[in-house]
Write a structure and sequence with these properties.
Elements (H helix, E strand, L loop, with lengths): L12 E4 L5 E4 L3 E5 L5 E3 L6 E2 L5 E4 L6 E3 L1 E10 L5 E12 L18 E6 L4 E2 L13 E4 L6 E2 L2 E10 L5 E13 L9 E3 L4
Parallel strand pairs: 3-9, 8-15, 10-15
Antiparallel strand pairs: 1-2, 2-5, 4-7, 6-8, 8-9, 10-16, 11-13, 12-14, 14-15
Length: about 200
């Protein structure tokens, strides 16, 4: 396998709900630790949601400790009517002595979810291309795998890679599944919405 590492900073991550609600996540946060530090406390600006949501939850606590590597911070904002919108950003911790998490290949650069259409009330089995690393002695976990079944909604598929030193790099694949009601013989599976 091949290595391709791209830790790109973005100005924002924007996610929109099916009824027009949206939430804007903060910029990626990059910090550097010294050779005598294993982790550092990281704070960020809270996301900016539309209107008044019922609840806003984060996968990590603002101000918590992060070790060397790239870490995904996911936000979910709930509105009335069962509408939820999500956004994410990365906390990237570098070390001045060269310590680093695994280099990830095939991690999406876009923060906009890839949209898939589900036909005839069939939930989606999505053949997305998973990220990978080429280094040895790296383990990974993921919240989903290719060909998992997805109901209508928006998802953050998270892959977490850990090297033998214990340093972590995470990759988020944003996916949205919508329902399209049509009457045709072959429309019984999901397809990418190429407009999005």
């Amino acid at each position: 396998m091949w290595i391709y590492a791209a830790f790109v900073l973005y100005s924002l991550s924007l996610s929109s709900g099916i009824n027009g609600q949206s939430v804007v996540c903060p910029d990626d946060v990059t910090m550097t630790v010294t050779s005598v530090q294993d982790e550092v406390a990281v704070s960020w600006a809270d996301p900016t949601p539309d209107g008044t949501p019922l609840m806003m939850e984060s996968s990590r606590t603002n101000g918590s400790m992060f070790g060397v590597g790239r870490h995904a911070v996911l936000y979910t904002v709930d509105y009335t009517g069962g509408v939820s919108v999500m956004c994410f950003f990365y906390v990237i911790i570098t070390a001045d002595d060269g310590r680093a998490g695994p280099n990830i290949n095939r991690c999406p650069t876009s923060r906009t979810p890839q949209t898939y259409e589900a036909f005839n009330n069939v939930n989606c089995s999505l053949p997305y291309d998973p990220p990978f690393v080429s280094q040895t002695m790296v383990t990974f976990t993921s919240t989903h795998t290719p060909q998992d079944t997805f109901e209508v909604g928006t998802y953050h598929v998270v892959y977490t890679f850990t090297n033998v030193q214990g340093f972590v790099s995470e990759c988020v694949i944003p996916i949205t599944v919508t329902r399209k009601c049509v009457s045709c013989f072959h429309c019984n599976k999901c397809r990418p919405n190429i407009i999005d």
